[in-house]
Amino acid sequence: MNTPVKQINRFFLLASAPLLGLLIALLISSSIINWDHQQEVITPKSDILTTTGTIAESLSQAEVMAQSTISSIQTTAELYHKTTSTMTSIVKLTQQAADRPGNIYNDRISSKLGTPFQTIDSDKIRIELYKVNPGTYKGYAMKIKLKSPKAMKMTLGNDKLGGSETTLKAVNRYGAVAGINAGGFADAGGKRYPLSTTVMNGKYLTGFEPTYKDLFFVGMNSSGKLIGGKFQQQADLDKLDPSFGASFVPILLKDGKKTTIPLKWQTSPLRAPRVAIGNYKDDQLLVLVVDGYNESGSSGATLEELQGRLSKLGVKDAYNLDGGGSASLVVNGRIINNPSDGALRPVPTHFLFFK
After folding, report:
1. For residue 354, which of 115, 103, 154, 109 has the smallest C-alpha distance?
2. CA torsion 44→48→54→57, rounded to 10°?
3. pTM above threshold 0.90
4. 109, 134, 163: which is the final residue of a domain?
C-alpha cells in the first residue's frame, strides 16, 4: 500500500475513534437490569422509558456526529484528490517546460534534414530516416536518439577476431533493428582484422595502439555518448570510459569546426561511397551514407562534400567510417543503400541498433 492511502486510513481511524468510544460508554451506562446470587431487581417501567429515551437521544446525537464525520472525511478525500491532481498537472507542466528547449533544438536540426520517409520509435531508441540528394551525389541520413545505452553496440564478424560478415547478416543474427559498417580492416591469411585500436565490451580487443598518421578512434562510452579522437596514451582514452569502438581515417568535424582533410585522402579516391557518424550537441547521433557506383573515384561524394554536408546539418563531431564497397545501411531487415559491389561486403565490425 502506498503512503497516501496509509495516510487516509489513519485519518479514518482517528475520525471514527470518538464515535466508537461514545457507543461503548452508552452500552456500559445503559444497563437497566442487575442480577446477583440472591434476588432479581426489576427496574420500574417509568425508569425504563426514561433510560430508553436517553439512549435514543444519545444515538440520535451519535448519528449526527457520524454524519458530520463522514462529511468531513468525504471533504478531506475530495481535497486530497484535487491536491494530487493539481500536483500531477504541475509536474507535467514543469516537465513540458523543461523539455521545450530540447524540442525546439530537435525541430531545428530535423528541419534541415527534411521529412523522414521512415521512423522507428520505442522505449529504447528513436530512428528517423531521410533521403539526402544535394545534386552531386545521393545518399541517406539516419538520425538516432538513444534512450538507453543498451540500444547500440558493436559486433565482430561471426563473433570472432579475424571473422567477417555482412551488416545484414549481423543485424539478423543479433535481432537488431538497424546497422551500419564500422571501422577499417586489414586482410591477412584469408581473414579480416579490425584496424588499430578496437574496444569490445569495455576491453581492448588487441591492446591499445597509439594514434599514428591520420587514424582516429570512435565509439560510445558506457553512458551511450559518442566519443572519439586521436590518443597517444591509453590513459587518455580510458578517461572517456569507452564501451566499444573502432578506428579509421580521417576526422571530419571537431567541436563544430571543419578539420583539415589530409592531402592523401582528398584524392584517394576523389569520390566514393561514404559512411560517416557524428553527434549533435544534445547527443543525438547522425549517420550519413552516400551511394556510389564503384570505387574508381568517379561516383559518390568527396570527403570535403561529406564534411560540408555534416557541418550544414549542425553536427558537432563527425568521423569518416570505412566506405567504398564496405558502405552498408540496413534497417528493419532491408538494405537501404545501393552497395557499390552489387552486394554487401563482409566486414569485421558493425555498429548495431536495437529496439
Report:
1. 154
2. -150
3. no
4. 109
Instruction: Using DSSP, state whether 237 is helix, strand or coil.
Output: helix
> What is the rounded average pLDDT of the residues 244-255?
98
**pLDDT, tens digit, 9 for 90 and up, residues 325-336:** 999 999 999 999
| Nine-digit cell string for 9 | 486510513
Q: Hey, is 125 helix, strand or coil?
A: strand
The 3-state DSSP class for residue 309 equals: helix
46 shares its domain with 143: no
8 A C-beta contact, residue 166 and residue 180:
no
Number of domains observed in the structure of the chain: 2
Judgement on whether residues 141 and 81 belong to the same structural domain of the protein = no
What is the pLDDT, as a whole number, of residue 34?
A: 46
Q: Pairing relation of β-strands 334-335 and 329-331?
A: antiparallel
pLDDT mean across residues, the chain = 87
- Residues ≥6 apart with Cβ < 8 Å to 141: 113, 129, 130, 131, 132, 286, 287, 288, 289, 313
- If we measure between CA atoms, which residue out of 206, 111, 180 comes closest to residue 320? 180
Separation CA 187–CA 24 (nearest Å)? 94
Judge if 122 and 23 occupy the same domain. Answer: no
Query: Cell 561514404 appears where?
Result: 274
Angle at 140 between CA 135 and CA 146, to 5 degrees: 145
Name the residue range of residue 150's domain.
114-353
Whether the predicted pLDDT of 290 surpasses 70: yes
- At residue 39, the pLDDT reads 46
Strand 139-146 to strand 152-156: parallel, antiparallel, or no bridges (unpaired)? Answer: unpaired
Q: Which residues pair with 143 in a beta bridge?
A: 128, 286
Q: How far apart are CA 232 and CA 220, in angstroms?
A: 19
Same domain, 102 and 123: no
End-of-domain residue from the set 76, 91, 109: 109
The answer to whether 134 and 300 are in contact (CB under 8 A) is: no
Same domain? For 93 and 168 the reply is no
